[in-house]
Amino acid sequence: MAPRTAEQSGKIREERRSQILDAALDAFAQKGFHDTKVSEIAARAGVSQGTVYWYFKSKEELFQAVFKDRVEAMFQPIFATAFDESLSPAGRILGISRGMLELTAERDEIVFVFIQTLATREVANLVTYDLGRYYHDILDVLTPLFEAHGDRQPLAVAKLYAAVLDGLMVRHILDPAMMDLEQDVAEISALFHLEEV
Q1: Residue 88: what pLDDT?
Q2: CATH, range 6-191
């Protein structure tokens, strides 16, 4: 049997790292940061605890990686909607709304991890820079859209819009039966005067 090439070894390492991150995401979403043990993550990933520590020095570092690699990555396609020039500013805002709410329905574990960063100061401190950057990025994207839409106080409206979306996402996590995507998007449209898409 021929030895692995550097490319093959790199691919295996990346697959193993991804496997650990997926297991950690599920564990953190189900049990929370504090109640999750690295041994549980290892078991979910089908690897030894030592293997987890070979990739990540601590549970804190693993949580940071989950946030950066999984949480941030899931939001990227939604940000792309903001720059879709085939849509009006109102259409882009509604597209972001739909994308965020669909994400909540399809990948609630992502939202659970995200909410942990908001709800627990110690956990928030693990990702303070990333979390702060996320909100600044959202406002940097939304404010020009609301300005182009004709709002007189676009930053204030963008902040309110982000708070409404956050609230809907939390509500859907707490009670998925309350999710009615079309109704929620229609209500956002009416609330922020986006009907003229």
Answers
A1: 94
A2: 1.10.357.10
